[in-house]
């Protein structure tokens, strides 16, 4: 079969094609795929080794034990005769089974399901006047590893659930490792970290039945957030389209807390971190998400890996909002230490300070993505924490968690966690110690080891704690009065959305509360929504069949923040996925032209045909097939080109594929399903040549918004990419009337 040279289709499982017969000639292990990269090969104490990244991978041509003993058989246990009992002396069996029995480590309590990638961060230098952090100096490039995750689900849960997402970045700077541990939502559920066990217990599956998995549509969650009304702002973000991103590549990230920058003169500035995706912020529709979780529960991690493999490297710009470091740490009436509050960008613009590109997939999920350990206390000179009461608890909790989950205090020596700067910490021994320490005096001062290690001064990069004055105060358990506003920001967020986005929020609240068993919980949350927005409350109450309560608190001002809406801008199209519906009767020259035109714009074209293989002759202008009517679903594609009348395929029978429905008709029912789903999900659709007949059979009006037609493949792709740049054809959604 010839290579596909016109387009870069991701998904190849190995760096070389598999042979039909089992290979029997000994050879060294295959190298990683071109899109993969492992952690930098530094020693457990941060020294460069000069070894390639693959030095830690398996080596040698032959199967061995863990101690390097070559083996001649690994399929049969050592027995007393072919039908006799297995012998205890089978050292290979015992090693193999024992290691297997201990392969799993405790999964994260939250953020258990994740995906990661390697990349590089390049600083613009625009923050150099407010922070002495070396990696933020002009044109400094820093290796990074990023882990994206969902919060509530287990490792085996689905990706496209309505949930908060983690967005955590490990910067391997030459001043030590810096971790920016954030989320895709800038506000949190709670104001004080002492409540963190409570909110997680409430949001996780019910402890008696361990359901529902990876979702908040249940009684304990809404019981908690309706009683702890400080959670209303976060809940509003989560019920919006932000709760179900289209891709990690189209997801914003936030540091959530307020941090402190310190410059060379010791002056301090308060900052909030923002990651802005270069492809814009884009989300799934609720029905899309439900279909995806059944069709492809690995949707987000596959999307990230495939984009990197295809060379469509995702990028985010890192920016900061800056605030004067005043004694009260307030800005425009917003308490900067309250993690349930965000500062609208219209009040404090986000100033870009660098750009991050993810350009390599992990070589091994467990060794890298699963074992990477983040901690907000991993700081570098020039960046310090504040007294945010949630952040203060995280500074303890994250370190404590890593020790438990990764088997001891030496988790920083795991390759993905190793600093890429010198380490001389005087810490010794412990579980999984990988360094071989020398010297006899791991204390200071000492004379036996020549006085080493020495204390550093500020002139050689020491971390200096900000000498913040701690005023005399009464020891007490309470929040400041500025934490008491629980509704104004939820209201600001909702009122800043476009009508179609508001409809999605109404749908989300109605669905989630409709899944609650207890009527009192639904009524209590409606009472909270009444204090957010009366129209929102009335619409949700109508869907629940309950009366809408009156507000009990003074309504907030009617200002809006346009930056909160995801609609109204255009974005680059590289990395999008377009499905091309074709068959043997299609104009294959035009199909190939469309594929090449899409590929030229960095868009991944996937051909959908009645069966796999090639359309036409493989060696004479044939078209390789990536999906079939059986395996394709509209949710995988950002847009669709129909280059076929889509006659029924041989397997268009309910017994072979239930999506085929009842037999009969001129169009394969699965093609009709794909097109009608794409249409109601507001995706651009183009008909090329004979494709117009399939659209007509699906009942899609040719004059509907976002429907284009033509015979010139290149011109059609140009028009389609213009529609793709807006993410969806938003005009296809009628505005809701109150």
TrEMBL record:
Where are the active-site residues found?
111, 183
Region ranges (Disordered): 1-60
**Catalytic activity, as annotated:** 2 H2O2 = O2 + 2 H2O
What is the E.C. number?
Answer: 1.11.1.6
Q: Name one Pfam family in it.
A: Catalase-rel
Residues binding heme: 108, 147, 196, 394, 398, 405
Gene Ontology molecular function: any one: metal ion binding
Q: Where is this cross-link: 3'-histidyl-3-tyrosine (His-Tyr)?
A: 375-398
Q: Which family does it belong to?
A: Belongs to the catalase family. HPII subfamily.
Reported function: Decomposes hydrogen peroxide into water and oxygen; serves to protect cells from the toxic effects of hydrogen peroxide.
- UniProt-recorded name of the protein: Catalase
GO cellular component annotations of the record: cytosol
The UniProt keyword set, sorted, is: Heme, Hydrogen peroxide, Iron, Metal-binding, Oxidoreductase, Peroxidase
InterPro entries (UniProt xref): Catalase, Catalase_AS, Catalase_clade2, Catalase_clade2_helical, Catalase_core, Catalase_haem_BS, Catalase_immune_responsive, Catalase_large_C
Q: Where is the Catalase core domain?
A: 64-452
Q: Which cofactor does it need?
A: heme
Stored Gene3D superfamilies: 1.20.1370.20, 3.40.50.880, Catalase core domain
Q: Name one GO biological process term.
A: response to oxidative stress
